[in-house]
Design brief:
By secondary structure, this protein is mostly helical. The chain contains eleven helices and no strands. The chain has one domain (about 20-245). It has helices at about 20-25, 30-55, 60-75, 90-105, 110, 125-135, 145-170, 175-185, 195-200, 205-230, 235-245.
Length: about 250
Amino acid sequence: MPDDTGIGGGGGNRFPSTHWSAIEAARSSDPRERRRAFETIVQAYWKPVYKYVRVHWRRSNEDAKDLTQSFFTRLIEKDDLAAYDPSRARLRTFVRVCVDRFVQNADKEARRLKRGGGALASLDFEAAEGELARMHPQAPGSPDELFDREWIRSLFGLAVDDLRAECESGGRTTQFRLFELYDLEGGNGARRSYHDLAAELGLKVTDVTNYLAWARRRFRRHALARLRDMTASDEEFRREAKALMGVEPE
Protein backbone atom coordinates (compact mmCIF):
# COMPACT_ATOMS: atom_id res chain seq x y z
CA MET A 1 0.00 0.00 0.00
CA PRO A 2 1.38 3.45 -0.86
CA ASP A 3 2.82 5.48 2.01
CA ASP A 4 0.64 8.62 2.04
CA THR A 5 1.94 10.08 5.27
CA GLY A 6 3.39 13.07 3.39
CA ILE A 7 6.54 15.00 4.14
CA GLY A 8 5.25 16.62 7.31
CA GLY A 9 3.95 13.54 9.12
CA GLY A 10 5.48 12.69 12.46
CA GLY A 11 4.70 9.12 13.41
CA GLY A 12 7.50 7.57 15.44
CA ASN A 13 10.31 9.62 13.96
CA ARG A 14 13.11 10.44 16.35
CA PHE A 15 14.45 13.88 17.00
CA PRO A 16 17.99 14.52 15.74
CA SER A 17 20.69 14.24 18.37
CA THR A 18 20.80 17.33 20.55
CA HIS A 19 23.46 19.91 19.69
CA TRP A 20 23.93 23.62 20.14
CA SER A 21 21.61 25.80 18.19
CA ALA A 22 23.14 28.49 16.03
CA ILE A 23 22.13 31.16 18.52
CA GLU A 24 24.03 29.40 21.31
CA ALA A 25 27.07 28.88 19.10
CA ALA A 26 27.01 32.57 18.13
CA ARG A 27 27.75 33.35 21.78
CA SER A 28 30.75 31.04 21.92
CA SER A 29 34.15 32.40 22.95
CA ASP A 30 35.65 30.67 19.90
CA PRO A 31 35.71 33.10 16.93
CA ARG A 32 35.56 30.25 14.41
CA GLU A 33 32.52 28.77 16.15
CA ARG A 34 30.83 32.17 16.16
CA ARG A 35 31.59 32.67 12.47
CA ARG A 36 30.11 29.29 11.54
CA ALA A 37 27.05 30.07 13.65
CA PHE A 38 26.47 33.41 11.97
CA GLU A 39 26.86 31.80 8.55
CA THR A 40 24.14 29.32 9.55
CA ILE A 41 21.87 32.14 10.72
CA VAL A 42 22.41 34.14 7.54
CA GLN A 43 21.70 31.09 5.38
CA ALA A 44 18.45 30.38 7.24
CA TYR A 45 17.12 33.92 7.57
CA TRP A 46 18.31 36.00 4.61
CA LYS A 47 15.45 35.09 2.28
CA PRO A 48 12.70 35.80 4.82
CA VAL A 49 14.38 39.12 5.62
CA TYR A 50 14.82 40.09 1.96
CA LYS A 51 11.24 39.20 0.99
CA TYR A 52 9.89 40.90 4.09
CA VAL A 53 11.72 44.13 3.23
CA ARG A 54 10.51 43.93 -0.38
CA VAL A 55 6.85 43.24 0.44
CA HIS A 56 6.14 44.79 3.83
CA TRP A 57 8.44 47.80 3.53
CA ARG A 58 7.77 48.13 -0.23
CA ARG A 59 11.43 48.63 -1.09
CA SER A 60 12.90 48.20 -4.56
CA ASN A 61 14.94 45.16 -5.50
CA GLU A 62 18.25 47.04 -5.16
CA ASP A 63 17.28 48.81 -1.95
CA ALA A 64 16.15 45.53 -0.39
CA LYS A 65 19.45 43.89 -1.35
CA ASP A 66 21.39 46.68 0.33
CA LEU A 67 19.23 46.63 3.44
CA THR A 68 19.36 42.83 3.76
CA GLN A 69 23.13 42.64 3.51
CA SER A 70 23.58 45.69 5.74
CA PHE A 71 21.25 44.16 8.32
CA PHE A 72 23.23 40.92 8.56
CA THR A 73 26.55 42.76 8.48
CA ARG A 74 25.42 44.73 11.51
CA LEU A 75 24.01 41.61 13.19
CA ILE A 76 27.44 40.00 12.95
CA GLU A 77 29.67 43.01 13.62
CA LYS A 78 27.63 44.51 16.46
CA ASP A 79 26.66 41.16 18.02
CA ASP A 80 23.00 42.20 18.14
CA LEU A 81 21.99 38.62 18.98
CA ALA A 82 23.47 39.10 22.44
CA ALA A 83 20.29 41.00 23.34
CA TYR A 84 18.04 38.08 22.44
CA ASP A 85 16.13 36.46 25.33
CA PRO A 86 14.49 33.16 24.26
CA SER A 87 12.09 33.32 27.21
CA ARG A 88 10.45 36.43 25.77
CA ALA A 89 10.01 35.62 22.06
CA ARG A 90 10.77 33.17 19.30
CA LEU A 91 14.01 33.80 17.47
CA ARG A 92 12.24 34.60 14.21
CA THR A 93 10.05 37.16 15.99
CA PHE A 94 13.15 38.80 17.43
CA VAL A 95 14.79 38.89 13.99
CA ARG A 96 11.69 40.46 12.41
CA VAL A 97 11.52 43.16 15.08
CA CYS A 98 15.22 43.86 14.54
CA VAL A 99 14.59 44.17 10.79
CA ASP A 100 11.76 46.63 11.38
CA ARG A 101 13.95 48.73 13.64
CA PHE A 102 16.85 48.56 11.19
CA VAL A 103 14.78 49.64 8.20
CA GLN A 104 13.19 52.45 10.16
CA ASN A 105 16.60 53.74 11.23
CA ALA A 106 18.57 52.95 8.06
CA ASP A 107 20.51 55.96 6.77
CA LYS A 108 22.62 56.63 3.71
CA GLU A 109 25.77 55.29 5.29
CA ALA A 110 24.13 51.92 6.07
CA ARG A 111 22.83 51.65 2.52
CA ARG A 112 26.28 52.30 1.07
CA LEU A 113 27.80 49.23 2.74
CA LYS A 114 29.40 47.11 0.05
CA ARG A 115 27.21 44.28 -1.21
CA GLY A 116 28.58 40.82 -1.80
CA GLY A 117 31.38 40.79 0.76
CA GLY A 118 32.29 38.14 3.29
CA ALA A 119 29.67 35.62 4.35
CA LEU A 120 26.97 37.31 2.27
CA ALA A 121 28.59 36.77 -1.14
CA SER A 122 26.48 33.73 -2.05
CA LEU A 123 23.01 35.17 -1.50
CA ASP A 124 20.93 34.33 -4.55
CA PHE A 125 18.68 37.39 -4.79
CA GLU A 126 17.51 36.45 -8.28
CA ALA A 127 16.03 33.21 -6.94
CA ALA A 128 14.30 35.12 -4.15
CA GLU A 129 12.87 37.55 -6.71
CA GLY A 130 11.53 34.62 -8.73
CA GLU A 131 9.77 33.28 -5.64
CA LEU A 132 8.28 36.70 -4.97
CA ALA A 133 6.99 36.88 -8.53
CA ARG A 134 5.10 33.62 -7.95
CA MET A 135 3.60 34.82 -4.67
CA HIS A 136 -0.19 35.00 -4.70
CA PRO A 137 -1.38 38.63 -4.52
CA GLN A 138 -3.49 37.79 -1.46
CA ALA A 139 -0.57 36.11 0.32
CA PRO A 140 1.22 38.88 2.28
CA GLY A 141 -1.16 39.20 5.27
CA SER A 142 0.10 40.72 8.52
CA PRO A 143 3.83 41.37 9.06
CA ASP A 144 4.06 38.35 11.37
CA GLU A 145 2.26 36.10 8.88
CA LEU A 146 4.45 37.26 6.01
CA PHE A 147 7.72 36.72 7.86
CA ASP A 148 6.61 33.41 9.40
CA ARG A 149 5.50 32.05 6.03
CA GLU A 150 8.83 32.90 4.41
CA TRP A 151 10.71 31.50 7.41
CA ILE A 152 8.92 28.17 6.96
CA ARG A 153 9.60 28.25 3.22
CA SER A 154 13.30 28.84 3.96
CA LEU A 155 13.42 25.99 6.48
CA PHE A 156 11.88 23.44 4.11
CA GLY A 157 13.91 24.72 1.14
CA LEU A 158 17.16 24.16 3.03
CA ALA A 159 15.99 20.68 4.06
CA VAL A 160 15.22 19.83 0.42
CA ASP A 161 18.72 21.00 -0.55
CA ASP A 162 20.21 18.81 2.18
CA LEU A 163 18.22 15.79 1.00
CA ARG A 164 19.28 16.41 -2.60
CA ALA A 165 22.94 16.57 -1.59
CA GLU A 166 22.62 13.39 0.48
CA CYS A 167 20.98 11.51 -2.39
CA GLU A 168 23.52 12.71 -4.95
CA SER A 169 26.47 11.75 -2.78
CA GLY A 170 24.94 8.42 -1.75
CA GLY A 171 23.78 7.20 -5.16
CA ARG A 172 20.09 7.63 -4.38
CA THR A 173 19.10 10.02 -7.15
CA THR A 174 16.04 7.93 -7.99
CA GLN A 175 14.75 8.32 -4.46
CA PHE A 176 15.14 12.08 -4.66
CA ARG A 177 13.53 12.22 -8.11
CA LEU A 178 10.48 10.38 -6.78
CA PHE A 179 10.29 12.73 -3.80
CA GLU A 180 10.56 15.68 -6.17
CA LEU A 181 7.87 14.38 -8.55
CA TYR A 182 5.38 13.24 -5.94
CA ASP A 183 5.82 15.49 -2.90
CA LEU A 184 7.32 18.69 -4.33
CA GLU A 185 5.69 18.92 -7.75
CA GLY A 186 2.55 16.89 -7.08
CA GLY A 187 0.55 19.35 -5.03
CA ASN A 188 -2.79 20.96 -5.83
CA GLY A 189 -4.38 17.68 -6.83
CA ALA A 190 -1.85 17.06 -9.61
CA ARG A 191 -0.17 14.04 -8.05
CA ARG A 192 0.37 11.10 -10.33
CA SER A 193 -0.27 7.56 -9.19
CA TYR A 194 2.46 5.29 -7.88
CA HIS A 195 1.80 3.04 -10.88
CA ASP A 196 2.49 5.90 -13.31
CA LEU A 197 5.68 6.87 -11.51
CA ALA A 198 6.84 3.25 -11.44
CA ALA A 199 6.26 2.92 -15.18
CA GLU A 200 8.09 6.18 -15.95
CA LEU A 201 11.15 5.33 -13.88
CA GLY A 202 11.25 1.61 -14.60
CA LEU A 203 10.51 0.57 -11.01
CA LYS A 204 8.17 -1.72 -9.16
CA VAL A 205 5.27 -0.07 -7.33
CA THR A 206 6.72 -1.45 -4.09
CA ASP A 207 9.99 0.32 -4.91
CA VAL A 208 8.13 3.61 -5.31
CA THR A 209 6.49 3.06 -1.91
CA ASN A 210 9.74 2.20 -0.18
CA TYR A 211 11.82 4.91 -1.88
CA LEU A 212 9.30 7.62 -1.02
CA ALA A 213 9.06 6.44 2.58
CA TRP A 214 12.86 6.61 2.88
CA ALA A 215 13.07 10.06 1.28
CA ARG A 216 10.34 11.43 3.55
CA ARG A 217 12.08 10.11 6.65
CA ARG A 218 15.37 11.67 5.56
CA PHE A 219 13.65 14.95 4.64
CA ARG A 220 12.08 15.16 8.10
CA ARG A 221 15.44 14.47 9.72
CA HIS A 222 17.11 17.22 7.67
CA ALA A 223 14.25 19.61 8.42
CA LEU A 224 14.55 18.93 12.15
CA ALA A 225 18.31 19.48 12.03
CA ARG A 226 17.77 22.81 10.27
CA LEU A 227 15.01 23.70 12.72
CA ARG A 228 17.40 23.12 15.60
CA ASP A 229 19.72 25.74 14.07
CA MET A 230 16.86 28.17 13.46
CA THR A 231 15.50 28.09 17.03
CA ALA A 232 17.12 29.28 20.23
CA SER A 233 16.08 26.81 22.91
CA ASP A 234 15.05 23.20 23.27
CA GLU A 235 11.55 24.33 24.24
CA GLU A 236 11.19 26.47 21.11
CA PHE A 237 12.59 23.67 18.96
CA ARG A 238 10.12 21.13 20.29
CA ARG A 239 7.19 23.53 20.02
CA GLU A 240 8.04 24.39 16.42
CA ALA A 241 8.61 20.73 15.51
CA LYS A 242 5.18 19.81 16.83
CA ALA A 243 3.48 22.74 15.07
CA LEU A 244 5.20 22.34 11.69
CA MET A 245 5.77 18.61 11.41
CA GLY A 246 3.62 16.87 14.01
CA VAL A 247 6.69 15.42 15.72
CA GLU A 248 6.46 14.56 19.42
CA PRO A 249 9.49 14.13 21.70
CA GLU A 250 9.97 10.57 22.84
